[in-house]
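Please, why this fold?
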Amino acid sequence: MEFSFFTGYLKVVDKKFKSDIIYLILKIPNKEIQNIYKNKVTEWFNIKIKTNDFQELITALEDGDCTKVSDIITGQLMETVSFYDYKEDYCHGFLAGLLKHNKKYIVISN
């Protein structure tokens, strides 16, 4: 993160002070860099998703094994996202992405 900030790939839009800690609110500075981030994140996610076999998740969903489904999704979230990614639309997209590569079902997003 520091590298992105110091090289200009992120810019400060606000600062918050809490005790002796400074929290910076960062923003992607322009469309060109936004496209770089988008392409790299998409590339990373596509590589990551291809290296995982999600048949265990599909089987758990089909069997109604909520504990197993929860364990698998929690494991994926712990490996890939920040705890700041908590909005419902993010989780919806994340789950749709996990299920997208299954050939048995078609995922239709709302």
